[in-house]
Design a protein that fits this description.
Elements (H helix, E strand, L loop, with lengths): L9 E3 L2 E3 L2 H11 L4 E6 L7 E9 L8 E8 L4 H22 L11 H7 L7 E6 L5 E4 L6 E2 L3 H6 L6 E3 H19 L5
Antiparallel strand pairs: 1-2, 3-4, 4-5, 6-7, 6-9, 7-8
Helix pairs in contact: 1-2
């Protein structure tokens, strides 16, 4: 597997981005002796959180890569409930990116991209893509849900649809009923 993890990338604001979870998995598989540490830099009582993450690929004795991230409690959807966790994840992602893991277009995190472009994050649709499983987002322009990987699916000629869990459950129930009817000799 390549260090840039290009096969795991999703498109965000027209750039390829590798999620932190994929970077962490790669790090743990490739650097068995390595470790990742995080530290809260600001006071726990502060509304403004700064996290420092340090990645040690060869254990505590070797080289290290450091990344920082900040979040303000209540700023945006995620930071209303999980600012600390969000900042920690971003800091780890930056440290791993500085090590070269998951870097395709830039080191910037999703939060940095959203902050730089003035986006507070997309409203989730509650529906999921049949091709990649990502939750759809609501288009600010049309108000309709779409897959965040729309352009990738289009470029790869992948057909997909967005369905809610309730719709999926209805289809499964319908299929079960049809199977039972067919078994009982009443296919119509």
């Amino acid at each position: 597997m390549e260090k840039n993890l290009k096969n795991k990338a999703i498109l965000i604001k027209g750039k390829e981005y590798v999620q932190v979870s994929h970077r962490i998995i790669f790090f743990n598989e490739k650097y068995g002796e390595g470790c990742i540490g995080t530290e809260l830099v600001t006071s726990p009582e502060s509304d403004h959180i700064i996290i420092k993450a340090t990645v040690y690929p060869e254990g505590l004795q070797g080289r290290k890569f450091t990344g920082y991230s900040q979040a303000t409690i209540g700023d945006g959807m995620v930071n209303k409930t999980s600012a600390l966790e969000n900042a920690e994840t971003s800091a780890v992602g930056r440290a791993l990116a500085l090590m070269g893991i998951g870097v395709i277009d830039s080191v910037a995190s999703v939060d940095e991209i959203n902050k730089a472009t003035g986006s507070k994050g997309k409203e989730k649709s509650g529906s999921f893509c049949s091709a990649c499983g990502l939750e759809g987002t609501i288009s600010a322009k049309t108000g309709k849900p779409y897959c965040p990987n729309f352009f990738r699916h289009k470029n790869d000629n992948v057909k997909y649809s967005l369905t809610t869990k309730e719709e999926d459950e209805k289809v499964i129930e319908y299929d079960k009923q049809n199977a039972e009817d067919f078994k009982s000799g009443n296919p119509f």
